[in-house]
């Protein structure tokens, strides 16, 4: 299902940048009459600002795609963990005669299955209207715990001389490969989250900084045009309705 908040936010950033292009076009058409003293309001500076904003927006969108992909990949690799652990316990139960070892293995499996007082975390993909760092922090503990519990379960199996299943997916070597894949996908998501968060910060700095951001500069351009041509002039009416909005992200 399409995330409405995310779509509105993405549209808001893009709209601000597109509106700046419109504003530049009108100001350029004013010719020599558009001659502000402030360097940031000059046409050349506005064009640099437009290109920089577009670059930062595209980078944030690219990093979001990578973040979403990493999120989905982690979900996929963890998806079959619980049923796999159950198969492992059943295989151990029919071979291991040491009740303490079997009890330890079952204990780790229960933790993997979430049969504890703690509520299991659910995976969330990065949304433009949410802080992805916060999203990760609220779910990361759960994934770290699953990795730890699965690692402990494998250690129990490796200590059991009786555990030697014929099924390839249940062999300790295959389980170690699974564990390594889980760790890699988990780490990849953490890095993708950092990259996406930093890209958002860079984008928002260019668009919404209180002093040098696109929205503030556009506001000052309007004020300059108003001062040159007058509040009821056709020129000011051309640009006064071009909206620039600070988008929460």
Give the SSE layout.
Layout: H1 4-29, H2 43-79, H3 81-93, H4 99-113, H5 132-159, H6 172-208, H7 214-229, H8 234-240
Helix pairs in contact: 1-2, 1-7, 2-6, 3-4, 4-5, 5-6, 7-8
Task: Give a verbal description of the structure.
The chain is mostly helical. The chain has one domain (4-119, 134-240). The protein has helices at residues 4-29, 43-79, 81-93, 99-113, 132-159, 172-208, 214-229, 234-240. Residues 108-117 have a biased composition (Basic residues). Residues 132-141 have a biased composition (Polar residues). Residues 118-127 have a biased composition (Basic and acidic residues).
Per DSSP, what share of the residues sits in E-state strands of 2 or more residues?
under 5%
Q: Give the ordered list of helices and strands.
A: HHHHHHHH
**Backbone CA Rg:** 28 Å
DSSP strand count: 0
Structural class: mainly alpha
Average pLDDT, rounded to a whole number, is: 89
């Amino acid at each position: 299902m399409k995330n409405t908040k995310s779509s509105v936010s993405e549209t808001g950033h893009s709209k601000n940048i597109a509106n700046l292009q419109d504003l530049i076009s009108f100001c350029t058409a004013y010719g020599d009459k558009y001659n502000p003293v402030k360097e940031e309001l000059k046409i050349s500076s506005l064009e640099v600002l437009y290109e920089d904003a577009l670059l930062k927006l595209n980078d944030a969108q690219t990093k979001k795609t990578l973040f979403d992909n990493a999120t989905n990949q982690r979900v996929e690799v963890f998806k079959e963990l619980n049923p796999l652990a159950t198969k492992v316990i059943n295989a151990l139960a029919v071979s291991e005669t040491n009740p303490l070892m079997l009890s330890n293995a079952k204990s780790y499996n229960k933790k993997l299955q979430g049969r504890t007082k703690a509520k299991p975390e659910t995976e969330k993909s990065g949304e433009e209207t949410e802080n992805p760092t916060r999203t990760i922090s609220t779910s990361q503990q759960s994934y770290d715990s699953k990795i730890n519990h699965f690692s402990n379960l494998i250690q129990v199996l490796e200590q059991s001389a009786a555990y030697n299943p014929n099924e390839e997916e249940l062999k300790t070597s295959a389980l170690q490969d699974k564990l390594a894949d889980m760790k890699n996908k988990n780490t990849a998501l953490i890095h993708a989250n950092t990259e996406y968060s930093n890209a958002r910060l860079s984008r928002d700095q260019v668009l919404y900084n209180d002093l040098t951001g696109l929205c503030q500069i556009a506001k000052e351009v309007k004020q300059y045009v108003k001062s040159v041509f007058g509040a009821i002039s056709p020129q000011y009416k051309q640009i006064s309705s071009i909206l620039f909005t600070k988008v929460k992200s």
